Amino acid sequence: MSKLKKIGLISFVVVVLLGALITYFVIQINDELDGLSYISIEEIDLATLDDGIYYGEYKTTIISAIVTVEVSQHEIIAITIVEHKSGQGQGAEIIVDSVINSQSLLVDSIAGATYSSKVILLAIEQALQ
Q: H or E segment at 29?
């Protein structure tokens, strides 16, 4: 086998392996994101919370959120998104307004940013548990 054919064969094998690896990771990420649909958000009993600032975070492979939630007199008065890695889901950040206005985590996701909305809500839930 000539040197050129060996290089061509090695290049082909590398490309096939990289393609398989990329496909594997894309499938894993899609499965993880689809799994977010099955995670339920639990309502928090604000009457049990003391005044203070609570810290929460939730992470997936490609979306993460870190939040602080300020509670005063058993009401959520502020939610700060400390960090939100989301790709195209930045629009989900307005979901904190819905949570504050309704004093509930059971709010609708932001259209076009469903996964990021869910991750932010899960971070808020984690903070208040």
A: helix 3-36
List the pLDDT tens digit at each of the 129 positions of the chain. 788 888 888 888 888 888 888 887 777 767 677 778 888 899 999 999 999 999 999 998 889 999 999 999 999 999 999 999 987 778 899 999 999 999 999 999 998 888 899 999 999 999 999
Sequence-distant (6+) residues with CB within 8 A of 49 are 71, 74, 128
CA angle 41, 34, 98 (to 5 degrees): 35
How many C-alpha atoms does 20 have within 13 Å on its Cβ side? 6
Domains: count for the chain:
1
Would 34 be classed as within a structural domain?
A: no
Whichever domain contains 82, its CATH number is: 3.90.1010.20
Looking up tokens 């082909």 gives 12
Domain of 57? 46-128
